[in-house]
Amino acid sequence: MVLEDAKTQVDHAFTRESLRGLTAENTFGGATSFLRRRYTKDLNGVDIAVTGVPFDQAVTNRPGTRLGPRAIREASCLQAPDPPYGWPYDPLSELAIIDYGDLAFDYANIPAFPVALKAHIAGVLQADVATLVLGGDHYISFPILQAYAEKYGPMSLLQFDAHTDTWADDDMDRVDHGTMFYKAVKMGLIDPTRSVQVGIRTVSGDTLGVNIIDAREVHEAGPVATVAKIRGILGDYPTYLTFDIDALDPAYAPGTGTPVWGGLTSAQAAIMLRDLGGINIKGGDVVEVSPPFDTTGATAIAGAHVATEILCLLGWGMRT
């Protein structure tokens, strides 16, 4: 591959003139925005805003996901300066995509965090821009869903995860990455009958009516049949997609807080995400990438690929 003239390789995260188009820069240099998109707070004419939420004060096990957004951005720069593989269109050229930077919050004032995150996402949605969020621990999906439900009404939730995160917790002010979907159901943010959790392989007392496709079912039925089942559950309902990186087996994603064996392979995840093209997705996130436990960088690389696939899913609906 021949890179463009060196004089043009000047931190496209700051200097690119158009929000559309591919970028060829040295993978080992330059500012590491997500996929070399422009860093900006200007939402005019934007289709998708990628934003980071470096928060991990809700974890029950190993911390470190506050460093996830930075690692995912860096890993995204390792991807080839080509259209994402396996899609019939190029979202990077057809859509206006920006890196909106990270949510700023007071790390020592945890009770204020949910309100700050909800407002952060709501501000983007008010501009009719979709969000792709880089976490952070999984609790962040709860304030994000609150903002989305205010705009779209109760959402379908498509969750890839080792855990259901529906443990009972009636204190709506508690900040916990294992109970937020219990709260989301109880608050009417998601419709459990039109929601599905994929890759589950831990015990949960009450799934609250959410449809479960556990990891064994994916392994036995295969990713293509799994996608058909997911589509049947979601229908055409407005959907929020959340991908906890521990949905993948620790062999593929060791750098996470609560790894569980028997998980999805990266190949299964890639097939499912690509074959889900056309679902009515409105937003998404990738969470629980913990760089301190990611000694090879494989988990961040997986997170960057998942985020790119979610970006492609979001763009699919915008172009039709």
Q: In DSSP terms, counting alpha (H) and pi (I) runs of 4 or more, how many helices?
A: 10
Number of DSSP-assigned strands: 9
Mean pLDDT: 93
Helix content: 25-40%
**CATH homologous superfamily placement:** Ureohydrolase domain
For the largest sheet, list the strands in their spatial order. 1-3-2-4-9-8-5-6-7
- Count of discrete domains: 1
The CATH architecture classification is 3-Layer(aba) Sandwich
* Poorly predicted spans: none
The CATH topology assignment is Arginase, Chain A
Terminal Cα separation, in Å? 32 Å
- C-alpha Rg (nearest Å): 18 Å
Largest sheet: 9 strands, parallel
CATH class: Alpha Beta
Describe this protein's structure:
- The structure is a single chain.
- The protein has helices at 12-15, 68-76, 91-94, 113-126, 141-152, 180-186, 215-221, 223-234, 266-275, 298-318; strands at residues 38-39, 48-53, 97-102, 130-135, 156-160, 196-200, 211-214, 239-244, 281-287.
- The radius of gyration is 18 Å and the shape is globular.
- By secondary structure, it is an alpha/beta fold.
- Strands 1-3-2-4-9-8-5-6-7 form a nine-stranded parallel sheet, with helices on both faces.
- The protein has one domain: Arginase, Chain A, CATH 3.40.800.
Task: Tag the structure with descriptive keywords.
320 residues, alpha/beta, Arginase, Chain A, nine-stranded parallel beta sheet, 31% helix, globular
